[in-house]
Amino acid sequence: MHGPAIGQNQHAYDRLREAGATQPLETAQDLSRRVAALMEPDQCAEMAAAGWEAVSEGAEVTDRLVEITLQKLGLGEAQQ
């Protein structure tokens, strides 16, 4: 859950929202209603799984880019 002030992180929040891993809050009533809903184990588990999937997507590509960058900087394992 998050409020409307997300700064420069709009893309990340949009991605999580589309995956069902976050919910924007607009009013104080939204907060109490959504906290109550998330106390249900199935709701909490669904959002957690969706969040994990959303942030894990592309992890292999990110790991490979980090590896290549470290190699180029001379900080990684020798190139094969």
Secondary-structure topology with pairs:
Elements lengths: L9 H10 L8 H11 L2 H16 L2 H14 L8
Verbal overview:
By secondary structure, the protein is mainly alpha-helical. It has one domain (7-72). It contains 4 helices and no strands. The protein has helices at residues 10-19, 28-38, 41-56, 59-72. The longest helix is centred in the middle third of the chain and has 16 residues, at 41-56.
What is the structure about, briefly put?
With 80 residues, this protein is mostly helical. The chain has helices at residues 10-19, 28-38, 41-56, 59-72.
List keywords for this structure.
0% strand; elongated; 80 residues
Tally of extended strands? Answer: 0
Spans with pLDDT under 50 lasting ≥5 residues? none
Averaged pLDDT: 82
Structural class call reads mainly alpha
C-alpha Rg (nearest Å):
18 Å
β-strand percent reads under 5%
